[in-house]
Amino acid sequence: MNGISGKVALVTGAGSGIGRATAVAFGEAGATVAAADVDEAAATETARLVEEAGGEAAAFHVDVSDEDSVAALVESVVDRFGGLDFAHNNAGIEGEGGPVAEQTLENWDRVIDVNLRGVFLGMKHEIPRIRERGGGAIVNTASVAGLVGAAGLSPYYASKHGVVGLTKSAAAEVAEDGIRVNAVCPGVVDTPMVGRFTEGNEEAMTALVEPQAMKRPADPAEIAAAVVWLCADDSSFVTGVPLPVDGGYVAQ
Ligand code: NAD
């Protein structure tokens, strides 16, 4: 892909699943990768995988729900690599299931804090640094849960709808600075998060992917490829878009 090689890419939630796959994909495309996660050991393993794939990487600790932590992360990345060109604000949690009337305020706050406040804080601190480089790109991880509703996981769905709105608004604000802001909206992806729903049960996975036209989960690399494309020059006229990468889920 064009325009990735030699650039600096920050990925949050890089210790697992989609974030880890994106870190490796950025590395394979020639970017220098900052792999950040609340689980620093997992981020360190991701940095090792990026290096194994031929890229340059370093691991960083961050709690995306904490402003001081996010500000320190962005400064550390700039100190280490000399600037910032791309950010994938991807860290997220599923939270507890249950109908709205039975949800606890604690669960609501935690899911919104990580999934929505985390993306807001990321962009708040990344945009000035990307602007200093004369432009770049941000990709936020939303979900098909940011495009449609469903019973039983309302804090998560609300957080992801929020990410879509935040992405569109930020895109409008920074377009003239040469910064594009998009979101990926994955369907079911084969990651530890989905593993917590299916608990290794094949029937549970079959039921989960049934609404997807392709009737299979995505490999995390299939989401990573969309993220890297959304940062590359190949998508130079695409901004403010919540892109479904969902095997035909929202199409039906
Ligand atoms: P995952 O659980 O495998 O990985 C999430 C990573 O985020 C973990 O490494 C975790 O330590 C990290 N993290 C959690 N809280 C954090 C915090 N406060 N600060 C920093 N890091 C934190 O999940 P995944 O499936 O790879 O999901 C990644 C993103 O994709 C999430 O935003 C998720 O909502 C979204 N998503 C996943 C799917 C799916 O089917 N797996 C579908 C749509 C959207």
Describe this structure in words.
By secondary structure, this protein is α/β, with parallel strands linked by helices. The protein has one domain (8-188, 219-245): NAD(P)-binding Rossmann-like Domain (Rossmann fold, 3-Layer(aba) Sandwich). It has eight helices and seven strands, in the order βαβαβαβαβαβαααβ. It has helices spanning 17-28, 40-52, 67-81, 105-132, 154-174, 192-198, 202-209, 220-231, and strands at 8-12, 32-37, 56-61, 86-89, 136-141, 179-186, 242-245. It has a seven-stranded parallel β-sheet, with helices on both faces. Strand 2 (32-37), helix 2 (40-52) and strand 3 form a beta-alpha-beta unit. Helix 1 (17-28) crosses helix 8 (220-231). The longest helix is centred in the middle third of the chain and has 28 residues, at 105-132. The chain starts with 7 loop residues before the first strand and ends in a 7-residue tail after the last strand. 48% of the residues are buried. It comes from Halogeometricum luteum. Keywords: Oxidoreductase. InterPro entries: NAD(P)-bd_dom_sf, SDR_fam.
